[in-house]
Specification:
It is a single chain. This protein is an alpha+beta fold and 470 residues long. It folds into two domains: 221 residues, nicotinate phosphoribosyltransferase; 227 residues, Alpha-Beta Barrel (TIM Barrel), CATH 3.20.20.70. Helix content is 36%, strand content 18%. The protein is built from 16 helices and 18 strands. The strands form five sheets. It has a seven-stranded antiparallel β-sheet with strand order 14-13-1-5-3-17-18. The two termini are 50 Å apart. The mean pLDDT is 96.
């Protein structure tokens, strides 16, 4: 069976880049480029995911004569003979044993940096390979995806933490307040792995197994996320509508210890909460509290989320009782909780929590599940990610490279060699080689085929933690 192109780095680029080695000025020796978030939805970005790309695609001997031959055949047919830089790639095999003569400096993963700052730089270390720096742009820019998911997930965490601070006794439950339901809602298994791991930078709840495997294999984390037994509609509706209560009874008896979640809107969510859970099965639910084995979590999965969540809480409160916490907000008994997993995005979480607060309910009664909105409803423009050349050495002369399109000054690029500095809590990118190297927060993470920094998931999480918890 043929191997996918991801097994050949030479094929992981945009078509036009294959011709770029012919387009630089004579006697070009160095090309230096950088990656940044030029703006976007969120004013700060969580840098994450570059290490995965480097380990998977860049480390070790990644260029061979066999891969060059494969690429030549593809590009000769695709672009026409004589375009592909066969000589340049063979030079890397013969001179560097197939290891990429490239240096990458990056901000440590997990660092939270305001947008419009450099996040990593790339340059060739062999003057004969000046063309390589931007050939690699395509795969390197794909860091936009894990970075953006981590950024969005952290924004969720901040808004949930805000409402917990205002309406709950503590923030102990915060790491499990946003659960990843996104595996089926993304475009590929690799997307699921990257996106789920990015979410786990901020939270510890996930149903996307690919993410915990990625965190284990690429960030030295034995177990990054956790889940619980949970029902889906088929495991409830297969019992038939007349035996719906028996389906619920089966859930709490099959899983007598530990948290268990049960979707309860297959027919009539109000009846399920009030009559079935609140009356017929009430003793079984209360028994979980007596044994202190973990709560039953009721999951509504349809309707207007703010309205539905509040009504579910009110019904459960009427049936099981409530108590006031130290902030004077209502809490259900500890053996019963609610998770809203339908229609959850960043804005909706705020609407639900606002509605709960206005009606006297603590945010600690609920958790959220998010799927496609968490892992898929983002793109490169969410944080306006871009990779641009800013410096070159041509014919022995330093050249500050930049673009400044008159039609869109938001795309104006940075000039020269860059440093990312952090003074008195403020981040700034210094251009044109005028920065202080001793203050530069960018560190060498990859050089000449070797991974120089190997960040652990614990280190990433510590850097990304919200200020409230640091």
């Amino acid at each position: 069976m043929a191997q996918p192109c991801c097994g050949n780095l030479l094929l992981i680029t945009d078509s036009y880049k294959v011709s770029h080695h012919k387009q630089y000025p004579p006697n070009t020796h160095t090309v230096y480029s950088y990656f940044e978030s030029r703006g976007g939805v969120y004013p700060e970005t969580v840098f994450f995911g570059l290490q995965y790309i480097l380990k998977k695609y860049f480390v070790g001997c990644v260029v061979t004569k066999e891969k060059i031959a494969e690429a030549k055949a593809v590009y000769d047919a695709h672009l026409g003979p004589g375009i592909f830089n066969e000589e340049g790639w063979l030079y890397i095999v013969e001179k560097h044993n197939g290891r990429l003569p490239i240096r990458i400096k990056a901000i440590p993963e997990g660092t939270v940096v305001p947008y419009k700052n450099v996040l990593f730089t790339v340059e060739n270390t062999d003057p004969n390979c000046y063309w390589l720096t931007n050939y690699l742009e395509t795969i390197l820019v794909e860091v936009w995806y894990p970075m953006t998911v981590a950024t969005q997930s952290r924004a969720f965490k901040e808004v949930i933490a805000k409402y917990l601070s205002e309406t709950a006794d503590n923030l102990e439950g915060l790491p499990f307040k946003l659960h990843d339901f996104g595996f089926r809602g993304v475009s590929s298994v690799e997307t699921a792995a990257l996106g789920a791991a990015s979410h786990l930078v901020n939270f510890k709840g996930t149903d996307t197994i690919a993410g915990i495997v990625m965190a284990r294999d690429y960030y030295s984390c034995p177990m990054a996320g956790f889940s619980i037994p949970a029902a889906e509609h088929s495991t409830i509706t297969v019992w038939g509508r007349d035996k719906e209560v028996e389906a619920y009874r089966n859930m709490v008896t099959q899983f007598p210890n530990g948290m268990v979640a049960c979707v309860s809107d297959s027919y009539n969510i109000w009846e399920a909460c009030g009559k079935m859970w609140g009356e017929e099965l009430k003793a079984l639910v209360e028994d979980r509290g007596k044994r202190d084995v973990g709560p039953l979590v009721i999951r509504p999965d349809s309707g207007d989320p703010p309205t539905t969540v509040l009504k579910v809480l009110n019904i459960l409160g009427e049936k099981f009782g409530t108590q006031m916490n130290s902030k004077k907000y209502k809490m259900l008994p500890p053996y019963i909780r609610v998770i809203q997993g339908d229609g959850i995005n960043y804005d909706m979480v705020g609407k639900i929590l606002t509605h709960m607060k206005e009606n006297g309910w603590s945010a600690d009664n609920v958790a959220f599940g998010s799927g496609g909105s968490l892992l898929q409803r983002v793109n490169r423009d969410t944080q306006k990610c871009a990779y641009k050349c800013s410096y070159a050495l041509v014919d022995g002369k330093n050249v500050n490279v930049f673009k400044e399109p008159i039609t869109d000054m938001g795309k104006k690029s940075k000039k020269g060699r860059l440093t990312l500095e952090h003074d008195n809590g403020q981040w700034s990118t210094t251009q044109e080689g005028t920065g202080n190297p001793d203050k530069d927060q960018l560190v060498v993470v990859y050089e000449n085929g070797s991974l120089i920094k190997d960040w652990t998931f614990d280190e990433v999480r510590a850097r990304a933690e919200i200020e409230l918890l640091k």
